Amino acid sequence: MQVFEVGGAVRDALLGLPVHDRDWVVVGASPQALVDAGYLPVGRDFPVFLHPQTREEYALARTERKTAPGYHGFSVHAAPEVTLEQDLARRDLTVNAIARGEDGQLVDPFGGQRDLQARVLRHVTEAFREDPVRILRLARFAARFPDFSVAPETQTLMRAMVAEGEVDALVAERVWQELARGLMAARPSRMLEVLRDCGALARLLPEVDRLWGVPQRAEYHPEVDTGTHLLLVLDMAARLQAPLAVRFACLVHDLGKGTTLPEEWPRHIGHEGRSVRLLQGLAQRLRVPVDCRELAEVVAREHGNIHRSGEFGAAALVRLLERCDAFRKPARFDEVLLACECDARGRGGLSESAYPQRPRLLAALAAAQSVDTARVSAEALAQGVKGQAVGERIHAARVAAVEAACV
Question: Are 122 and 93 in contact (CB under 8 A)?
């Protein structure tokens, strides 16, 4: 029995990056041999075991054969006679098909080290085309390693996979899993660029794909193209270290502009409401977590008003806070403002611009929250005021507090 460290841990170590998770492949052993050695079997689709002390994953060397379309259409063969090279051959990219033996020696039959040095993402074998998830994984790696290019032959292969309908068989959960990881990478724009280049973006996220080629008013958007703007917004979200919910909101905040009639360009009247409806459908289709969807809805609906809020008086500011549910969910409102800042700074030549709307609205929220709503309610009731009129008293008190503090 031989044990080799494989995959991302070897790749990241060679790149000088921190290694967090380690994976191991076992050659020349049977499942029973690992069980007898104290390993805990956990693999459902193929033999994977947890080390009795470290709890790291050890998988038996295996081969795979395509049996049906999609992600689950595979037959797996794991046996003592499967070689390390056969196991590495089934992996997605050459940079992920490098193994390190217990003696520290590298096993690299497919030129992974060469591609690491050349900063190239290249498929290992034609078996890449058998698993459509690999398109998403490659796009996600491009976002994580933005100085890596995609090998031309790999681009050609991915386009063929899309044309053959392979990505249409992907399950929603796996699409969201890879999309979320790509959004949280160093340069999320690279993920969209790779998916768009091979045609997968149009199949998986048509609402996003149709933004390219749609113009916006140059005085507000020097970059003009709505798709280009989206890429700038996503990379600004990464630069500001935004959480996933904010990055998803950035991804879908302008979807409605993709449905504006060409004769109305470059204006996009009413795109906010259309964006909300489109992102709701997208979120349902991909089973996006509720917190991501709800934040995105607020951003899509209100980002224009938040951008214009510097012109608002106290009453308009309080109404905006109420529509954003800021009094009940102040932490979420802060994330709404962060997404809006990414939108404002994600424009050509404006990445270093200040976004005064954010501190002003946070100050307005703090002032409005200083109102003792319980006391206002009690006084109103003592005066015989009931029902909706009590809420109007609270609203008026908040407006007065905001006017004193912010206007």
Answer: yes
Report phi then psi at 31, rounded to 5: -55, -40
Q: Is the pLDDT of residue 296 over 90?
A: yes
Spatial distance between the Cα atoms of 338 and 237, rounded to a whole number of angstroms: 8
Give residue 382's identity as a one-letter amino acid code: A
User: Strands 74-78, 40-41: parallel, antiparallel or unpaired by DSSP?
Assistant: unpaired
Q: Which is it for strands 48-50 and 149-150: parallel, antiparallel or unpaired?
A: unpaired
Tell me the average pLDDT across 283-296.
Answer: 98
CA 200 – CA 203 distance, rounded (Å)? 5
Q: In the predicted model, what is the mean pLDDT of residues 256-264? A: 96
Coil, helix or strand for 150? strand
pLDDT above 70 for 363: yes
Chain centroid to CA 405: 38
State the distance between the two ends of the chain, measured CA to CA, in whole angstroms.
74
Amino acid making up residue 144: R
| Rounded CA separation 22/253 (Å) | 37
Contact (CB, 8 A) for 63 and 77 = yes
Structure token pair of residue 194: 């790779």
- 78's enclosing H/E stretch is strand 74-78
Q: Is the pTM of this model over 0.85?
A: yes
> CA dist 327 to 209, 331, 332, Å?
35, 10, 10
Among residues 243, 258, 242, 268, the alpha carbon closest in space to that of 205 is found at 258
> What is the distance between the alpha carbons of residues 395 and 322, in angstroms, rounded to a whole number?
9
Distance (Å, whole) CA 342 – CA 353: 11
Cα 369 from Cα 327, distance rounded (Å) = 7
- What is the spatial distance between Cα 179 and Cα 252, in angstroms, rounded to a whole number? 13
Phi, psi dihedral angles at 120 (to 5 degrees): -130, 135
Dihedral Cα 255, 258, 260, 261, nearest 10 deg? -160
How far is the C-alpha of 369 from the C-alpha of 363, rounded, in Å?
10
